[in-house]
Amino acid sequence: MRFHLSEEQISIQDAVRGTLADKWSMDILHKFADSESDFDQPSWDALMALGLAGILLPDSGMGLLDAALVCEVAGEAAAAGPLIGQMLAVAAVSRSSSAAAKAHLEALAEGTTIATLALGDSAYVPCARAAQFFLTGSRDGPISLVEAGDGVSIETVRSTDRSRPVSQVSFDGAITHQLFAVGDPMAGKLFDAALVLIAADALGGAQKCTDMSVEYAKEREQFGQPIGQFQALKHQLAQMALEVEPARAQLWYAAYAHDADLDDAPRAAVMAKAHLCDVYVRSARAAVAAHGGIGYTWEYGLNYWFRRAAFDRAWLGSPSEHRARAADMAGW
Amino acid sequence: MDLSYGEMAEAYRADVKDFLSTNWLPAGDLRGGELKKYIREFRTKATEQGYLYRAIPKIYGGSEQPVDVIRAQVIREEFVRARAPMEVGGNGMNMTVPTLLEKGTEEQKDLFIRKTVEGEYIWGQGYSEPGSGSDLASVRTKGELSKDGSKWIINGQKIWTSQGMQATHMFMLVRTEPEAPKHDGITYLLIDLDQPGITRRPIRQMTGEEGDHTFCEFFFDNAETPVALQVGERGQGWYVSRTTLKHERASIGSADGLGRQFSKLVELAKETGRIADPVIRDKLAQIEGFVLSHRYTSFRLFSCSAAGEDPGRVQLMMKLLLTETGHEIALLAQELMGEYAFIEPAGAGGRGPRGPRGPEKWMDQIMGSLGNSIAGGTTNIQRNIISERGLGLPRDVIAGGGK
To answer: How far apart are alpha carbons A89 and A190 in whole angstroms?
Structure first.
């Protein structure tokens, strides 16, 4: 019986964290946020050099839990790039029987060819202008890999999340490789995997909001003492930690249940997405409140996580939509 | 990750099942003394097999097993499945015995451990006082040495003692050095409660609970205990009281109580015809998010314990998460009850037969959830612990005073 991270899993997280500390500093994030770009090549290349895009290959020896641990660190750093879409495109293409799609598998798994997540009904797609492929489809199938170019229209919009800018995307006659047909159970599994990875991003972001608030409370002095000594603030920070840290194990379970193909895996994914995204939004609000004025400035940077929380919450359905599904799935 | 216990554990499980199937067969007509005797004999056999009292040395009636949280978990699961009795519970097993094993004299161990394990001695906790709740180290119950130096003479009052009407003995914190800083002036004493200088009285609770099975307050008027029953050094009682049972404490089932309560809440929503209401469905799933976090964190703590690794700050959060989620359950239950809230449930406060009870029974949980967030360290004290020990925030100047 083992239900905590292995040394290997922790060292993968450390490697991703170290890479992003170097290639995705606050200075770089600030510059990117004010640029017109929806993609950052240097940080992407550095992440891809770690082999992250191939984590969900069938023979990688890893699984959704490992992918989630990576997404958690990406969320913590507010990293740019379509990491979730890339990993899921590799997962989908590698398990499909489409020879045309599989011709791109090697480049997708290396991250030299970029794919982004466009599942569901939403027209808003992150990193669309940088993507060469879009993973599209619905929960009941079909799931397809759509090639960028003719038949794909991309309209730039002003994005709330400055780390993963979205565009409005529509498809009309684009080159499409169907990966899974209507009714194929892989379609639902891909959706569930996407929910778990978004929840992982939310966990990392919520943790970051808590950590930033705790560090600031130790440094900032008012009335002649660190504000972290005032019980009112201490209790707010304890509340943030109370929401984030126990939710970590809930996320692990959702990912583990998916990997082990347990019966409750689909519901665990839905519950994790709803719960973690709520936690992230609350943590981001609490973090701004805990910081006071500095947290309300653009310069301090906390707003990037606040904005990312709004993105994660809305992506592939809001918490209340997922809770409605969870209620149905429980047979209530 | 892997939630199976492994082949060795499953082989062990087969042994435990085998033992239970031949040794736990109480006849349905066993009552009173006969049933007690049967249970006592069963516990002795189970201890001989190494299933019970695993942390207790053999010389004191335990089975003295090496620490193995997986085996302990398998034993717990199979005993629960078979509805077989486990160890005698209460403060004696949870507090007195581990404290004596770590800090007691040979004489104290000989006097008390076996009789506590066998259920003959029942222990009350003498910590809280009317003036000392969260600020426990401010206790004022006084201990003074008799002229010949052989006895402690005790005067003062203790409160919130569970099983107080049944208790035969008490472990208590008394102030013996009034001039010392507050944490350093306390001594830990064991005392026989059957003596003229001690009066006990049940406390009637907000639930209406009273009589033999509620908390008690104790009045000490020149009560006495031999100096030989002082545990640890004089003036070091505060630190003696920090000893807790670490042996195989982690268990997978520790979070199941909350899960069971949540399932009952869903049943209540069905029973009162509210389950189809989208608002109720959303609220239920919101609460379940915290229930699942609690459940899978208990898996994580168990796993760390089995591997001998420190799980870190999350272990400080379990009580608060449990009680906060209990409040959410109480609030939704109160909504779901509707007019059943007019009726006090049968048997509330331990009075009279409980009989069959309808949705009004939730008033027990609704009030009880408040008791849970006071007992064993209030909610605000838990928040202090999480922020100071867990997040490393500076200690509160006043609460940290005296040390």
So the answer is: 9
CA dihedral (B262, B263, B268, B273) positive or negative:
positive
Residue B253 has pLDDT above 60, yes or no: no
Pairing of strands B186-192, B169-175: antiparallel
Average pLDDT over residues B174-203: 96
Domain A185-329 has CATH 3.40.190.10: no
**Phi, psi for A5 (deg, rounded to 5):** -70, 145
Which fold, B252-390?
Answer: Butyryl-CoA Dehydrogenase, subunit A; domain 3 (1.20.140)
Taking CB atoms and an 8 Å limit, are B393 and A271 in contact across chains? Answer: no
d(CA B287, CA B264): 13
Domain ranges in chain A are: 185-329
Say what the ipTM of the complex is. 0.97
**Residue range B341-365, pLDDT digits in tens:** 999 888 766 655 667 789 999 999 9
A275 to B275: CB separation less than 8 angstroms, yes or no: no
Tell me phi and psi for residue A25, to 5 degrees: -75, 170
B78, B129, B209, B248: the active-site residue: B248
Q: Helix crossing, B278-307 with A319-329: angle to 10°?
A: 80
DSSP string covering B125-161: EE--BTTBSS-GGG---EEEE-TTSSEEEEEEEEEEE
Inter-chain CB proximity B289 and A278 less than 8 Å:
yes
Considering only CA atoms, which of B172, B163, B90, B91 is closest in space to residue B132?
B172
Residue B68 to residue B20: CA distance in whole angstroms: 20
State both tokens at B124. Answer: 């009350």
Lowest average pLDDT, out of A45-49, A115-119, A267-271, B347-351, goes to B347-351
Measured between beta carbons, which residues in chain A are less than 8 angstroms from residue B302? 1, 3
Distance CA B385, CA B55 (A): 28
The separation between the first and the last C-alpha atoms of chain A, rounded to the nearest angstrom, is 32
Mutate to test the interface with A, among B3, B293, B373, B397 (most CBs of A within 10 A): B293
In the three-class reduction of DSSP (H, G, I as helix; E, B as strand; rest coil), residue A177 is classed as strand
Domain boundaries, chain B: 7-87, 97-240, 252-390
- The single-letter code of the amino acid at B51 is Y
Residue B169 token pair: 């003995």
Residues B97-240, CATH architecture: Beta Barrel (2.40)
CA atoms within 13 A on the CB side of A218: 12
**Residue A26: partners with Cβ closer than 8 Å, 6 or more residues away:** A301
- Cβ atoms of residues A325 and A211 within 8 Å: no
Residue bearing tokens 């990688």:
A60
Write the residue in B282, B293, B388 that is nearest to A250 by C-beta: B293
Residue the block writes with tokens 């194990």: A249
Taking alpha carbons only, the member of A8, A79, A12 closest to residue A43 is A79
DSSP string, A200-265: HHHHHHHHHHHHHHHHHHHH-EETTEEGGGSHHHHHHHHHHHHHHHHHHHHHHHHHHHHHTT-TTH
Judged by CB atoms closer than 8 Å, whether chains meet at B317 and A248 is answered as no
Taking the C-alpha atoms of residue B139 and residue B132, their distance in angstroms, rounded to an integer, is 6
pLDDT of amino acid A137: 97
- Nearest-angstrom CA–CA distance, A117 and A197: 12
Closest B-chain CA to A62:
B1
The chain-wide mean pLDDT, for chain A, equals 97
Annotated catalytic, B288? no
